[in-house]
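re: ur question from yesterday

yeah so i grabbed the chain u mentioned. its 231 aa long if i counted rite. heres the sequnce exactly as i have it in my notes:
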Amino acid sequence: DLLQLREMVKTDPSNAEFRKAMVSGIASAEFAGIDSFSRKVCEWQDWPVPWSLIMAMARQTWDEVRHAWLGKELLESYGGELGEYPDTLAGGGAAGAVVPDGVAEALRDPIVSLSMTNVSLEGAALQLFRDTSLVGRRIGDRMMEHVFDYNWADEVTHTAIGDYFIKLLVEGKPEEEKKALRAHGLAEAFRARLSAEQTEELRAFFAEELDRGLSALGTGAVGPTSNGAAG
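ran it thru and got these C-alpha cells back, copy pasting raw so excuse formatting
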C-alpha cells in the first residue's frame, strides 16, 4: 500500500527499507505503464483515430520509460535493486487481479482506455507524485523530491492528453460520450480510497450497478476468466 508506505517514510525517515519498498511499488507501476502505452501505439493504429493520438501515446510511452529509469536510479541510491520487493503494480492487490476477456477487449477501445487511464488513473498519479515529492522535501531527501516533482509535471501533460482526445473523439457522438463517462466512473469506483461521499456521488451520477456499467461497455459482469490470465 503506497499510501501506508509513504506515511511510514514520514514517520521514520532514517529507515531505508521503507523508502526502498515505496519506490519499488511506484517503479513497478511505471514499468507497467511502458507496456500499456506502447501497446496502444501499436493496437490503436487499427482504430479510426487521429494519427496525432498515436503520436501522443508514443510520447507518453517515452515518458513512462523515463519515469521507470528515474525510479530505478532512486531505488539504487538507497542501496536497493529492482526485484528486491514483490511486483505489486502500485499496491492494492492489483498484481493478482483477473481481467475478464470481455473487459480486456473493451479496454482496447481508445475511448474507454483514455477515460480509464489518462483521465482517471493518471489523475490519481498526479496526487501520488505531488505528495511523494512533498515527503521528500519534508525529510530532506532532495533526490526523492526532484524525481517525483519531475514525474508530476509529466502527469499534468498526460491528463491533458486524455482530456483533449476524449473531447475530440466523442464530439457530436452522444453514445460515445456516455461510454467515456461510464468508463471514467468505473475507474474511479475501482480506486480503493474513495471517500463515502465520493462513492455516493458516483452512484447517484451513473445510477447503475457495476454489471450494468460493464454491459454498457459491451462486456459481461466481472468474474474470473477460464484461462485465469492476470492483468
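noticed a couple things. The CA atoms of residues 55 and 123 lie 21 Å apart. also The radius of gyration is 18 Å.
anyway ttyl
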